Amino acid sequence: MGDVGFVGLGVMGQPMAANLARAGTPLVVYNRTPGKAEAARAAGAEVAASVDQVFRRAATVLLMLADGAAVDATLARGTPAFAARVAGHTVVHMGTTEPEYSRSLEADVRRAGGRYLEAPVSGSRKPAEAGELVAMLAGDTEAGRDIRPLLGPMCRQVIDCGPVPNGLVMKLAVNVFLITLVTGLAEATHFAERHGLDLDRFREVLNGGQMASPISRVKIDKLLYGDHAAQASITNVLENNRLVAGAARAAGLATPLLDACHRLYAETAALGLGEEDMVAVIRAIQARTDAAAARDGGTERHRRTERNGDTERHEGTERPALR
After folding, report:
1. Is 318 helix (H, G, I), strand (E, B) or coil?
2. What is the C-alpha to C-alpha distance for residues 298 and 143, in angstroms, rounded to an integer?
3. Residue 278 DSSP one-character state
4. How much is the pTM?
5. Which of 49, 103, 153, 260 is the most exposed place for a label (fewest CB within 10 A)?
6. If we measure between CA atoms, which residue out of 44, 52, 58, 48 comes closest to residue 85?
7. How far are the Cα atoms of 3, 37, 147 from residue 11, in angstroms, in the given order?
C-alpha cells in the first residue's frame, strides 16, 4: 500500500500510531503539537512537518481527530485545496463525530476523486496500547478490503457495519452502554462506600460475578484508588453524550438513562474535573449526597430548635475518602 499517513496523536492516536509503526507499517505521522509525535517516532514512524507532506507521501491517510472542525481543517475542506488534497487518496475517519457530518464528508471526498471510510473504534487508552480496539468499518466495500490489513496492529476485531454512516451510528450505540455502565459502577461504589462496606470485598464480588468485564475491572480499580488519570476524560464523555443525544433526537428516540448521565458529567466538569477520567463522575454523585445531607440536616436542626427553644450546633462527620 506504500506509505500510510496518520494525523491526530492524542490520547488514543499516540498508541494507535505507535502500534502501526512497530508492526512495520511505513508510517508518516503529523500532529499539530509536535511533541506528541515522539512516541510514534520512537516506534519507527517518520514525523511530517505539515499535513501537506503527509498527503504528498501517503495514498491512505488515517484521521484520529477530536471533532469535525479538526477533520475539516486537516483536509482543507471548504477551500480550493480540498480537492487537490484528497483526490486519489483513501481517507479513513477513525474519530467520533455526528453521523450526518460523516455522510456529507463522504459525499465531498468522493466528488473530489477520493475514497472514504469510517472506522471509529471502541476502547480507551489501555486497549489502544495493547492493540485490542474494536473497529466499526463502514463505507466502500473495495476500499474496506484494502484497509483491513492496516487495522490489524491496532484492533483485535474489525466489524463490517455497511454503508456510511453506520460505523458511527454503531459507535454511538456502544457509547450509550459504556457511559451508563461506568456511571452505574461509580454510583454503586459510592453506595458501598457510604454504607461502610469493605471496598476490597466489594471489588472481589464485582470481579467474581457475571457482570464483570474488562472495563469494569479497570474502572473499579481507578475508583477505589482515586486514579483519575484520563483514559476517557469527562470532557470527552460529555461530547460523546452530546453526539448520542443529537442522533437520538433526530430519530425521535428517548434516552432517559443517558440524559441523567449527561447531567452528572456536566456537574463533574463544573467541579473543574473535565480533564480527569470518566470515573471522576463519582465526585458529582458525592456532591449530590453531601448537598442533600446538608439540606436534611439543616431542616432537622431547625425542627429541633423549634421544639427545644434553643440553638443546637451540628458537628459534621467527615466521610472517609476513597483510596
Report:
1. coil
2. 65
3. G
4. 0.88
5. 49
6. 52
7. 23, 12, 23
Judging by DSSP bridges, how do beta strands 46-47 and 155-160 pair with one another? Answer: unpaired
SS3 of 275, please? coil
Grid cell, residue 230, equals 484520563
Residue 118 and residue 165: Cα distance in Å, rounded?
7
Q: What are 121's strand-pairing partners?
A: 135
Main-chain phi, psi angles of 274, to 5 degrees: -60, -30
Torsions phi, psi for 322 (to 5 deg): -65, 150
Is it the case that residue 313 has pLDDT exceeding 80?
Answer: no
The DSSP result for 154-221, as a single string, is TEEEEEE--STTHHHHHHHHHHHHHHHHHHHHHHHHHHHHHTT--HHHHHHHHHHSTT--HHHHHHHH
Residues 34 and 303: their CA atoms lie apart, in Å, by 63
Q: Which residue of the set 36, 171, 219, 222 is catalytic?
A: 171
How is residue 129 written as a grid cell? 496500547
171 catalytic? Reply is yes
| All cell numbers assigned to 130 | 495493547
- Strand ranges, E, within the chain: 4-7, 27-30, 46-47, 60-63, 90-93, 115-118, 121-122, 133-139, 155-160
Report the alpha-carbon distance of residue 195 to residue 210 in Å, rounded. 23
Q: How remote is the C-alpha of 103 from its chain's centroid?
A: 21
* Backbone φ, ψ for residue 121 (5° rounding): -120, 150
Q: Which amino acid is residue 303, in one-letter code? A: R
The model's pLDDT over 17-30, given as tens digits with 9 standing for 90+, comes to 999 999 999 999 99
What would the pLDDT profile of 223-249 be if each residue is shown by its tens digit?
999 999 998 999 999 999 999 999 999
Cβ neighbours for 26, distance < 8 A, ≥ 6 positions apart? 2, 3, 4
Q: Is 252 left (phi over 0), alpha (psi -120 to 50) or beta?
A: left
User: Quick count: other Cβ atoms within 10 Å of Cβ 241?
Assistant: 23
Residue 174 C-alpha cell reads as 456502544
